[in-house]
Amino acid sequence: MKRSPQLTRSEARRRLRAVQKQIAGLEYLCSGTVSYQTRRCGKPNCACAADPAARHGPYYVWSRREGGRQVNTMLAAEVGPRFERAAGNYRKLRDLLHRWERLSAAVLLPPTGPKSQPRRHLASKRKRGPQRSRP
Ligand SMILES: [Zn+2]
Questions:
Q1: Distance, CA 46 to ligand 1 centroid (Å)?
Q2: ∠70-35-59 over CA atoms, to 5°?
């Protein structure tokens, strides 16, 4: 694994504040996906039964998992785009949380010198042989 050039603590703190500010700016969140689709109504005499072009809609559908089950919710045309943005915000939040975690480590961990601490630690472990599990 290649390490990125050492981030100074003050730079990491500055980036951390920027991440927190971005998270605070995410107004709505929804997990899952928002799609745009046409539907058959199920009536055998309706044109939609035979002709795909005569299907109803399109409608926005919000799909997500709730308690292990897949749940689909039809959305009114005017709220569909807001749910699309909310789903985008959710994905963005997950990325931002990963950054928050990495930057937290960069601020909290002691700085490593030119001789990398983790490497020396690994080497000394290897000399001692495999770790025994304690009873
Ligand atoms: Zn129909």
A1: 5
A2: 105
Residue 49 CA to ligand 1 centre (angstroms)? 6
* Domain coordinates in residue numbering, the chain: 13-108
Tens of pLDDT, residues 62-106: 999 999 999 999 998 899 999 999 999 999 999 999 999 999 999
pTM: 0.67
- For the segment 47-74, what is each residue's pLDDT rounded down to a tens digit? 999 999 999 988 999 999 999 999 999 9
Using only C-alpha atoms, the chain has a radius of gyration, in whole angstroms, of 25
Kindly give the distance from the C-alpha atom of residue 38 to the centroid of ligand 1, in angstroms, as a whole number. Answer: 10
According to DSSP, the residues that pair with 34 across neighbouring strands are: 62
Rounded to the nearest whole angstrom, what is the distance from the C-alpha of residue 42 to the centroid of ligand 1?
A: 6
CA of 132 to the centre of ligand 1 (A): 68
Ligand 1 mean position, distance from CA 52 (Å): 10
Task: Give Cβ neighbours of residue 107 (< 8 Å, ≥ 6 apart).
Answer: 9, 12, 13, 16
Contact 83/30 with Cβ under 8 angstroms? Answer: yes
